């Protein structure tokens, strides 16, 4: 199967008549995140995570995974998510206390 050739104009192609680019959004002073709810964890995020966790758990169970394995996997995902949100939200002090407690319990102190 061959494609039909496309017609080409005889003369040079016209210049692009594009709209001028929009000016960039002003950045916040100090280089931090802009004000607003763009970087916050809100109810919509929580609902999406709830649906994802329920869907993942249901899918694993229907695929024949043992129930205690499903709970262990979802618990691990929840722990990783909580640690990520804590670190991103500026809760580094709380996170350091949790990590220190986990290390001490692992070391048997």
Structural write-up:
It is a single chain. The mean pLDDT is 77. It is elongated, with a radius of gyration of 26 Å. The chain has helices at residues 43-62, 67-88, 92-107. It contains three helices and no strands. 53% of the residues lie in helices and 0% in strands. It has a domain at 43-107. It has 109 residues and is an all-alpha fold.
Short description:
The chain contains 3 helices and no strands. The chain is an all-alpha fold and 109 residues long.
Q: Segments where pLDDT lies below 50 for 5+ residues?
A: none
How helix-rich are the residues, as a percent range? 40-55%
Shape: elongated
Please trace the helix and strand order, writing H or E for each element.
HHH
Rg over CA atoms, rounded to whole Å, is: 26 Å
Give the number of DSSP strands.
0
Secondary structure tally, helices: 3
Biggest sheet, open or closed, and with what strands and sense?
none
Class based on secondary structure composition and strand pairing:
mainly alpha
Transmembrane segments: 46-64, 70-88
Region (Disordered): 15-38
Keywords: Membrane, Transmembrane, Transmembrane helix
């Amino acid at each position: 199967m061959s494609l039909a050739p496309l017609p080409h104009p005889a003369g040079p192609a016209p210049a692009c008549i594009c709209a001028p680019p929009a000016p960039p959004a002003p950045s916040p002073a100090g280089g931090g995140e802009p004000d607003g709810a763009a970087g916050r964890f809100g109810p919509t995020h929580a609902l999406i995570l709830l649906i994802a966790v329920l869907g993942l758990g249901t899918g694993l169970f229907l695929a024949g995974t043992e129930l205690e394995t499903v709970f262990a996997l979802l618990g691990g995902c929840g722990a990783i998510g909580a640690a990520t949100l804590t670190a991103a939200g500026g809760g580094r002090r709380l996170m350091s206390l949790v990590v220190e407690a986990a290390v001490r319990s692992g070391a048997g102190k």
